[in-house]
Amino acid sequence: MAFSRYCTPISTPAPALFAYSPKLPQTSSPWHNVRNSRLVLGTSIPNCLRLRGGRGRGDCHVHVVESKSRLRARAVLDKDADDISSQANELVPKKSVSVILLAGGKGKRMGANIPKQYLPLLGQPIALYSFHIFSLMSEVKEIVVVCDPSYRDIFEEARNSMTVYLKFASPGKERQDSVFNGLQEVDQTTELVCVHDSARPLVLSGNVKKVLKDAWVHGAAVLGVPVKATIKEASNDSFVTRTLNRQTLWEMQTPQVIKPSLLRKGFEVVHREGLEVTDDVSIVEHLKHPVYITEGSYSNIKVTTPDDILLAERILNQR
């Protein structure tokens, strides 16, 4: 599944109406730039009125350059742009993250007699690779493994000296049902919910930390990589209808990290309207809340076929 960098589009102001002060800070963060130039509906501005934002690094001057008796304006810089910038420099607190590790899939495409996430990868079950990564992170307080009860012993035996809590939930009929079941086991004081596919054993701890930090700032974030292939849209009878601009397309991965209040509100909408979603941040998109894409690694593959296992082995041997 591919999305543009921000899954919820945000409109920018019309340059014909406003001239921005050079005091507006520049930053490499696309989200910060969008927030600094965002206009909010509802302000009436008489002729030649000059609006000045607050003081400090986030000051923004707006000048009416079109002479009319009244302008129905789209408003100026949100004050919380500075708040977002300052939060970006903070670390995610220790023991503030609950991981929902999805390990209940059947893996029919693998053609094996056990689910793919429990097949051995260089002598260790695939699901345990990410399990160990999360268990060693200071930000993680608990791991909720969503799996069939018959496979719980794999995780219990791998606990060893883990300092995080280990919980279990039963898988649902669809992915969104499994995530919902896992969410019911999450500690009520947790500040971020991190959902990960156990069939992605090659995720890097550095990328996990990046997406946690972005979710801490923006409320929802997902690992993704820019699409490299040409993507075409086709009709039901397999004729090309258009070629999509890959410069704006991203392939989604996991972890997908969301503040629990957003995830719970999103599930309320999904259940009320009978929606089906194929990934976790799509639940938040139904709330019209922006989702930030944290650039990850192309090596964070999902093991789905026998060829994927061979590729995963090569990647691990090169690390």
From TrEMBL:
GO terms for biological process: isopentenyl diphosphate biosynthetic process, methylerythritol 4-phosphate pathway. Keywords: Isoprene biosynthesis, Nucleotidyltransferase, Transferase. It comes from the Eukaryota. GO terms for molecular function: 2-C-methyl-D-erythritol 4-phosphate cytidylyltransferase activity. PANTHER family: 2-C-METHYL-D-ERYTHRITOL 4-PHOSPHATE CYTIDYLYLTRANSFERASE, CHLOROPLASTIC. Belongs to the IspD/TarI cytidylyltransferase family. IspD subfamily. HAMAP family: IspD. This is 2-C-methyl-D-erythritol 4-phosphate cytidylyltransferase, chloroplastic. It comes from Picea sitchensis.
